[in-house]
Design goal:
Order of helices and strands: EHEHEHEEHEHEHEHEHHH
Shape: globular
Strand content: 15-25%
Distance between the termini: 26 Å
Oligomer: single chain
Number of strands: 9
Structural class: alpha/beta
Length: 263
């Protein structure tokens, strides 16, 4: 095909209207008339409308999206009501980046993520109750942690701490990439009791907590129970390796698209 322009069949993106204009995508679809636009939307629970503005959220791109992949199961119906095909597509992770390592457990609890929302209050409460949390990310004293170092840090922790809350909301949760990264690292993971996780993982694989007292109590207990903690970590890893890698996600997606297209 030397000298010929490659003609794309699919544009796969993860965005919303506040980042890219619908009219720009329409120009692409005019240029490449068979082009199908697939959008991965991880934040529909709070970004389907962007701060209440329909035209700035994912909603603002519905006139150009051919398939919406959403990490919020209830959002599938939102898209279908607007005439846009949609598939539940939770986040996942990759064994290329996260996997068990034979390293010493240097830290009791580790957290990787930006310092915002209710996270600081959660970590302060854990520290106040004698549970030391080592933090990396924007806003924390340790600063950012390179992706290339994250898996080793996770493996050096007895427990990885997650936060399922959205911003400053105390009763609104969303799936996070960390939910799957932590599982694949082979380390025990504690986070908010998001109902989505209960549907995606067996009951005895994650430490799911409902409030600050629950985090303190459950993490303190699991830190004292090496056998149970290691069992949960192994089972979580095996489950994630089988069900929650990107290879699994996209294999399932392509199979679904084949069915939809009669292939």
């Amino acid at each position: 095909f030397s000298g010929l322009e490659a003609i794309p069949d699919i544009l796969l993106m993860q965005t919303a209207a506040w980042r890219i204009r619908s009219q720009d995508l329409k120009q692409l679809k005019t240029k490449y008339r068979e082009l199908k636009v697939i959008n991965i939307s991880m934040d529909d629970r709070h970004a389907y409308y962007h701060y209440g503005k329909k035209d700035m959220g994912v909603y603002g791109l519905l006139d150009v999206i051919d398939l919406a992949l959403t990490a919020a199961p209830e959002a599938v119906e939102w898209y279908l009501k607007e005439g846009v095909p949609s598939v539940y597509f939770p986040e996942a992770s990759s064994l290329d980046f996260f996997f068990p390592m034979n390293v010493a457990k240097k830290f009791d609890v580790g957290f990787v993520g930006a310092r915002y929302g209710n996270r600081e209050k959660l970590i302060r409460e854990l520290n106040h109750n004698g549970i030391e949390v080592t933090c990396y990310g924007k806003g924390w004293e340790n600063g950012m942690l390179a992706l290339s170092d994250t898996n080793e840090f996770f493996n050096s922790c007895k427990v990885i701490l997650g936060s399922g809350e959205i911003g400053y909301c105390k009763d609104l949760y969303a799936l996070k990439l960390r939910d799957f990264d932590a599982a694949l690292s082979g380390t025990c993971y504690a986070t908010h009791a998001n109902i989505d996780l209960k549907d995606l993982f067996p009951a005895d694989t994650l430490v799911l907590c409902s409030d600050l007292d629950d985090f303190v109590s459950k993490i303190a207990d699991i830190l004292q129970d090496d056998a149970r903690r290691e069992h949960m970590a192994r089972k979580s890893f095996e489950w994630a390796k089988e069900h929650h890698t990107y290879e699994t996600r996209f294999t399932s997606l392509f199979a679904t698209l084949g069915v939809l297209n009669g292939g």
